[in-house]
Inverse folding.
C-alpha cells in the first residue's frame, strides 16, 4: 500500500514531532592535570563542571593529534604534525584555521575568535584565543604553545 493524501494526518505528525524535548548532557567530568610527565601519580583531582570542564576539553582537543589514536573518532583532535619544519609565516596563519576546525567539531563550541599568534622561539608559537560557546558564553585567554 502506498501512502496517499487520504491516509496522511498532519496533526498526528505534529504531535509526534513535538512529543519529546532535547536536553543537553551535563558537562561534569574528571579534573585532570595536563602535564608532560605521564608518570605523575595525581593526574585526576576530583571533578569539574561548566566552564572549567569546557576549558579542559579545549586543551585536550588541541593536545591530541587527529588520526593518531584509534580510540578517538576522526573528528577529534587537531592536525599539527605536518606544520613541523614549515615556514613560520605559513604555520602562524595555518594554526588559526586548524584550531578553529578542531574546536568547532565539538557541539558545545560555536566559534573561535581573537587569535594572537606570536613566535616565541625558533620552532615554537604561542597562541592565545577566545572561544564562543553554543550558549553565547565567552571564554577568554586560552593559551597554548605549538611546535613548528
Amino acid at each position: 500500500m502506498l501512502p496517499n493524501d487520504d491516509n496522511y494526518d498532519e496533526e498526528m505528525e505534529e504531535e509526534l514531532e513535538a512529543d519529546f524535548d532535547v536536553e543537553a548532557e551535563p558537562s561534569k567530568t574528571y579534573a585532570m592535570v595536563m602535564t608532560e610527565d605521564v608518570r605523575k601519580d595525581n593526574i585526576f583531582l576530583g571533578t569539574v563542571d561548566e566552564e572549567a570542564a569546557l576549558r579542559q576539553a579545549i586543551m585536550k582537543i588541541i593536545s591530541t593529534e587527529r588520526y593518531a589514536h584509534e580510540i578517538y573518532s576522526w573528528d577529534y583532535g587537531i592536525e599539527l604534525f605536518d606544520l613541523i619544519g614549515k615556514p613560520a609565516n605559513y604555520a602562524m596563519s595555518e594554526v588559526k584555521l586548524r584550531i578553529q576546525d578542531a574546536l568547532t567539531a565539538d557541539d558545545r563550541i560555536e566559534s573561535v575568535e581573537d587569535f594572537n599568534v606570536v613566535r616565541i622561539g625558533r620552532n615554537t608559537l604561542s597562541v592565545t584565543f577566545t572561544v564562543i560557546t553554543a550558549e553565547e558564553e565567552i571564554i577568554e585567554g586560552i593559551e597554548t604553545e605549538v611546535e613548528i
In short: The first strand starts at residue 29 and ends at 32. The mean pLDDT is 85. Residues 88-104 form the longest helix (17 residues).
